[in-house]
Amino acid sequence: MTFEEYQKESKKTATYQEKGREFWYPALGLAGESGEVIEKVKKLFRDDNGVLSDERRESLKNELGDVLWYLTQIATDAGIPLESIAKGNIDKLFSRKTRGKITGDGDNR
């Protein structure tokens, strides 16, 4: 499945279509689901010494799917293709790497 296909299909499952809710609902959902990913990673180290079992991998995959869904809705509502986000991000990272700025902090490295 391509980014474009996912973006189109996932939008069909969005239930918050009222005008004025385009950004805050999926943004809050993204924060919540990101927290669930963090919880999965925490428990991976707390309970399994960082060893990723098939069961934990599947559980993590499911939470990452939820993160992807919310991220996709924000992008779609803003009129931004996921492919352009991915390309822009990888271009930015390779630029930073080439210039020796891959580590550190700040948006304009």
TrEMBL record:
Gene3D superfamilies: MazG-like (1.10.287.1080)
Residue ranges of domain NTP pyrophosphohydrolase MazG-like in the record: 29-97
Pfam families: MazG
Name of the featured protein: NTP pyrophosphohydrolase MazG-like domain-containing protein
InterPro entries: MazG-like_dom, MazG-related_GP37
Highest taxon listed in the record's lineage: Bacteria
